[in-house]
Specification:
Catalyzes the phosphorylation of pyruvate to phosphoenolpyruvate. This is Phosphoenolpyruvate synthase. Belongs to the PEP-utilizing enzyme family. This protein has helices at about 35, 50-55, 60-65, 70-85, 100-105, 125-130, 135-150, 165-175, 195, 200-205, 215-220, 240-255, 270-280, 290-310, and strands spanning about 20-25, 45-50, 90-95, 155-160, 185-190, 210, 260, 285. The protein is of the alpha/beta class. α3 (about 60-65) crosses α4, α4 crosses α7 and α13 (about 270-280) crosses α14. The protein is globular and about 65 Å long. The N and C termini lie far apart (about 60 Å). Bound molecules: phosphoenolpyruvate (PEP) and magnesium ion (MG). Magnesium ion binds near residues 191, 213, 215 and 216.
């Protein structure tokens, strides 16, 4: 029943608005798709793949050992497709696997995952994916299948990239898996200071978008562990150092025609919305319960900008 509910060709080419900052929604699990779609959001700014895998209670390696590669790919295809269907033709940005090793270690098969002193600075996101091409290839195969099924509203997002080399290696693997980067919308998360400082080189890799993961960008810029209560008072997404990096990224991306977005928790803070709309961000993706407030805030700031421009 793979293609039973696939959109037809005539429905292709998701509509892109001509002006304004779009407001999107984050979807943590596929079961939340309908509720998320009902918010009227302009699309999904972040759909996390890892929950589709972690919910099976097995590491990717153990899952494939027990059920086979095809079942692993199906698990991802089914989860993403549920969301892509609920939002079609609105775009759905799907992030490749990004769970730290300590989360994998709690699962069946976890004893074979690395035990790390500091998982947040370790083996996660694109680093793990590039180090385990066999595992990453299965994820990419799931994307290729979704495109075959007609879900051209699916976008591919790479987490925790450091530099252009990370992106180019992933891009090559996408091509090997049958995904045409020229034809599909794909991009990166800006979560490391290195990726923000090197945004020009990242833009030159051919990405369509860059999305701020402010949970991590704040943690790494301020050297404040996002899970450490002792320094929780120092975790400030609106810190000038974080905002300075973000402003540079938005400016450079605009020069290169690369869309910008935010999908970290700070997206629901009015001050962050004001800052981003002022800087000219393309979209803001918030949690389901915050979408309405963010929509209002965006409208308010855009009206102010419009008034200022005619004065
Ligand atoms: C972020 O870092 O802001 C983000 C959205 O990713 P995660 O919270 O999953 O690390
Ligand atoms: Mg992150």
């Amino acid at each position: 029943a793979d293609d039973a509910a696939a959109p037809t060709d005539s429905q292709h080419s998701p509509v892109k608005p001509m002006t304004g900052t779009e407001v999107k929604v984050n979807v943590s699990i596929p079961a939340a798709a309908e509720r998320a779609a009902a918010t009227g959001a302009d699309g999904v700014g972040l759909l996390r793949i890892e929950h589709m895998i972690l919910s099976t209670d097995k590491t990717p390696t153990r899952y494939v050992e027990d059920h086979g590669e095809r079942a692993y790919v199906d698990e991802i295809v089914d989860g993403v497709r549920h969301v892509a269907e609920a939002f079609y033709p609105r775009p759905v940005r799907v992030r490749t696997l990004d769970a730290p090793s300590d989360e994998f270690r709690q699962l069946q098969g976890g004893e074979d995952e690395p035990a790390e002193h500091n998982p947040m600075l370790g083996y996660r996101g694109i680093r793990r994916s590039l180090d385990r091409p066999d595992e990453f290839e299965l994820e990419l195969r799931a994307f290729a299948r979704l495109y075959e099924l007609g879900y051209d509203n699916v976008e591919l997002m790479l987490p925790l990239v450091t530099d252009a080399e990370d992106v180019l290696r992933a891009k090559t693997m996408m091509q090997e898996a049958g995904i045409d980067p020229e034809k599909r919308d794909w991009g990166v998360m800006v979560e490391t200071p290195a990726s923000a400082l090197g945004i020009e080189q990242l833009c030159e890799t051919g990405i369509d978008f860059a999305s701020f993961g402010t949970n991590d960008l704040t943690q790494y810029t301020l050297a404040v562990d996002r899970n450490n209560n002792n320094v929780a008072g120092r975790f400030e997404e609106l810190h000038p150092a974080v905002l300075d990096l973000m402003a540079r990224v938005i400016g450079t991306c605009r020069e290169h025609g690369v869309a910008t977005s935010i999908c970290g928790q700070a997206a629901s803070k009015p001050e962050m919305v004001q800052f981003l709309v002022d800087e000219g961000v393309s979209s803001i993706s918030a949690n389901i319960d915050a979408v309405r407030d963010v929509q209002h805030e965006v409208k308010r700031v855009e009206q102010r900008l419009l008034l200022e421009s005619v004065r």
